[in-house]
Amino acid sequence: MSPTAWGAFAGLIGGLGLVLVAWRVRAMRPRLPDRIAPYLRERPATSGLLAEPRTHTPFPTLESLLAPVMSDAGRVLERLGSTTQNVRRRIALSGAPLTVEQFRLEQMMWAVLGLTGGLLLVTLAGVARGLNVLAGTGVVVIAAVVAAVARDRWLTRTANRNQHAMLEELPAVAELLALAVSAGEGPMAALERVARTTRGALTTQLEVTLGEARAGTPLAVSLERLAARTSQPAVARFAEGIAVAVDRGTPLAEVLRAQAQDAREAARRELMEVGGKKEIEMMFPVVFLVLPVTVLFALFPGLMLLQVGL
């Protein structure tokens, strides 16, 4: 690489740095609403001990220093399609004990790892075959973006897997609740017994529901929140059915047995649909691989005899 190209590359990097510094200094200038907000803000109605922690990592000083950069990076990630509402919804569906800020921090860490991997790859390629600045910069940027998108896709996959596990556990949990209620226990005690004796994705959500109920939220409202935290219609109907039964005083055991039967029927229909799709997918190797080879083996001896005869 010629000295002129190196000088142009260094000037480009320096110019980009100056532009970023000027943009950041301009963004840090306080606006009028920000200046008068501390004098108009209302006092919190609850104790500060119940507030969420302001730091999300074991390094609060470093997190405070990088907070402006992280907030700008979060806005950039939102422009890529991962909005805050969408991320919050997927975190609720996955059942992970994360906040949106913690997820953004993990996404940035994945992007930094991708950036590091891209730099390492570009460096090794430059040592072996020479450095192309434009191609190397593109590879590094693409590696960082792919890593950030991969973390977002991993959250979606975790949410889908958690929802599928809840659907699989629903019949057993409904039957256990029906047995506990038939034995004479109340709805709250039956839910506590099932939460103690089982483990799984649905049990975790039941524990969250019981925690809200112990904190003072009505059990029907907590169950409605459970229905809102799932994307499976069967699980939502299960929670809403229990909430309606608790609210109106209808026989809960029969409702739970009916919910378990509906869940089994839904699982059977889903299994048949998956089996039908797999059967269609199995036709592709049969038609495009096995059948041509069979025809070739059947025709090859005749073709060889014809060739010998000619």
Automatic annotation (TrEMBL):
GO cellular component, one term: plasma membrane
Subcellular location: Cell membrane
Residue span(s) of domain Type II secretion system protein GspF: 175-299
Claim: Lipid metabolism is one of the keywords in the record: no
Signal sequence residues: none
Entry superkingdom: Bacteria
Keywords assigned by UniProt, alphabetized: Cell membrane, Membrane, Transmembrane, Transmembrane helix
Membrane topology category: Multi-pass membrane protein
Membrane-spanning residues: 6-25, 108-127, 133-150, 286-306
Cross-referenced Pfam families: T2SSF
PANTHER family noted in UniProt: INTEGRAL MEMBRANE PROTEIN-RELATED (PTHR35007), PILUS ASSEMBLE PROTEIN (PTHR35007:SF2)
Entry protein name: Tight adherence protein C
Species whose genome carries this gene: Georgenia satyanarayanai
